[in-house]
Amino acid sequence: MSLPSTAPQRDPDAPARKLRASNLRTAVILLSIALTFFVGVIASKWLGTPQTSIAVLGSAVLLFLIVAIGRNLRK
What we know:
Elements: H1 14-47, H2 50-74
Helix pairs in contact: 1-2
Protein backbone atom coordinates (compact mmCIF):
# COMPACT_ATOMS: atom_id res chain seq x y z
CA MET A 1 0.00 0.00 0.00
CA SER A 2 1.48 3.36 -1.00
CA LEU A 3 0.66 6.68 0.57
CA PRO A 4 -0.47 9.57 -1.59
CA SER A 5 2.20 12.10 -2.36
CA THR A 6 1.93 15.35 -0.41
CA ALA A 7 4.57 17.13 -2.49
CA PRO A 8 3.17 19.95 -4.65
CA GLN A 9 2.81 19.06 -8.30
CA ARG A 10 4.81 21.31 -10.62
CA ASP A 11 3.44 22.32 -13.97
CA PRO A 12 6.23 22.29 -16.58
CA ASP A 13 4.25 24.65 -18.85
CA ALA A 14 3.70 27.32 -16.18
CA PRO A 15 6.57 29.66 -17.26
CA ALA A 16 5.44 29.51 -20.89
CA ARG A 17 1.86 30.24 -19.86
CA LYS A 18 2.93 33.22 -17.75
CA LEU A 19 5.02 34.60 -20.62
CA ARG A 20 2.13 34.20 -23.05
CA ALA A 21 -0.25 35.97 -20.66
CA SER A 22 2.24 38.81 -20.19
CA ASN A 23 2.70 39.15 -23.95
CA LEU A 24 -1.06 39.19 -24.44
CA ARG A 25 -1.49 41.96 -21.83
CA THR A 26 1.21 44.01 -23.54
CA ALA A 27 -0.42 43.52 -26.93
CA VAL A 28 -3.81 44.61 -25.60
CA ILE A 29 -2.31 47.73 -24.03
CA LEU A 30 -0.46 48.66 -27.24
CA LEU A 31 -3.60 48.05 -29.30
CA SER A 32 -5.68 50.23 -26.99
CA ILE A 33 -3.08 53.02 -27.21
CA ALA A 34 -3.16 52.87 -31.02
CA LEU A 35 -6.97 52.85 -31.09
CA THR A 36 -7.20 55.75 -28.65
CA PHE A 37 -4.85 57.88 -30.72
CA PHE A 38 -6.65 56.93 -33.93
CA VAL A 39 -10.09 57.77 -32.51
CA GLY A 40 -8.67 60.92 -30.89
CA VAL A 41 -7.26 62.20 -34.16
CA ILE A 42 -10.51 61.48 -36.00
CA ALA A 43 -12.54 63.20 -33.25
CA SER A 44 -10.26 66.22 -33.24
CA LYS A 45 -10.57 66.58 -37.03
CA TRP A 46 -14.33 66.21 -36.74
CA LEU A 47 -14.62 68.81 -33.96
CA GLY A 48 -12.20 71.08 -35.76
CA THR A 49 -10.34 72.94 -33.00
CA PRO A 50 -6.66 72.50 -32.17
CA GLN A 51 -7.40 72.74 -28.46
CA THR A 52 -9.66 69.70 -28.70
CA SER A 53 -7.00 67.62 -30.42
CA ILE A 54 -4.40 68.55 -27.80
CA ALA A 55 -6.87 67.77 -25.01
CA VAL A 56 -7.86 64.39 -26.46
CA LEU A 57 -4.33 63.22 -27.18
CA GLY A 58 -2.94 64.63 -23.93
CA SER A 59 -5.60 62.91 -21.86
CA ALA A 60 -4.94 59.64 -23.70
CA VAL A 61 -1.23 59.87 -22.92
CA LEU A 62 -1.96 60.68 -19.28
CA LEU A 63 -4.42 57.81 -18.97
CA PHE A 64 -2.01 55.25 -20.36
CA LEU A 65 0.84 56.52 -18.19
CA ILE A 66 -1.38 56.06 -15.15
CA VAL A 67 -2.27 52.52 -16.27
CA ALA A 68 1.36 51.60 -16.96
CA ILE A 69 2.63 52.99 -13.66
CA GLY A 70 -0.25 51.36 -11.79
CA ARG A 71 0.56 47.96 -13.29
CA ASN A 72 4.19 48.25 -12.20
CA LEU A 73 3.33 49.40 -8.69
CA ARG A 74 0.94 46.48 -8.22
CA LYS A 75 3.69 43.90 -8.80
